[in-house]
Design brief:
Number of helices: 1
Shape: elongated
Order of helices and strands: EEEEEEEH
Largest sheet: 4 strands, antiparallel
Radius of gyration: 19 Å
Distance between the termini: 27 Å
C-alpha cells in the first residue's frame, strides 16, 4: 500500500492561517499534529503577509512551535510539510483489525462504535 509521496514518507503540505491583532507583528504558533504524524524539520515556508516563520529551537516534531512575523491586522499564512511514521501505520492497522472483527460479528461495514 502506498500512501506517502516519496521515500521520506511525506504526506503533504499543511497551510496555517493566523490573523494577527492590530498592533501585533509577532505570534508564537503551536501546531499539534495527530498521533504518528510529524513535522519535517526545515520545511516551514512563509506565505501571504508573512515576513518570516521559524521553528522554535527544541520544539517537538509532533507539536512544533513557530515564531511568525507578519503584517498586523491581516491573515498571515505559512505552510509546513508533514510525514507519516510507523506509529500512525500501527494505529491504522489496529483500527482496521478492530473494524474487521466487528464486521465479522455482524456489524455494518463502515460503521464502528467504541
Amino acid at each position: 500500500m502506498h500512501f506517502a509521496n516519496n521515500a521520506n514518507f511525506e504526506i503533504g503540505t499543511l497551510t496555517i492561517k493566523i490573523k494577527l491583532p492590530i498592533g501585533k507583528t509577532t505570534a508564537k504558533v503551536t501546531v499539534t499534529l495527530p498521533t504518528g504524524i510529524e513535522y519535517i524539520t526545515g520545511s516551514a515556508s512563509k506565505g501571504a503577509n508573512a515576513a518570516s516563520v521559524t521553528q522554535v529551537t527544541g520544539s517537538p516534531v509532533t507539536a512544533p512551535v513557530f515564531t511568525l512575523v507578519g503584517t498586523p491586522n491581516t491573515e498571515v499564512v505559512f505552510t509546513i510539510k508533514r510525514k507519516i511514521t510507523k506509529l500512525a501505520t500501527n494505529t491504522l492497522l489496529a483500527f482496521s483489525y478492530l473494524h474487521a472483527a466487528k464486521s465479522s460479528q455482524g456489524a455494518t461495514a463502515g460503521a464502528a462504535s467504541f
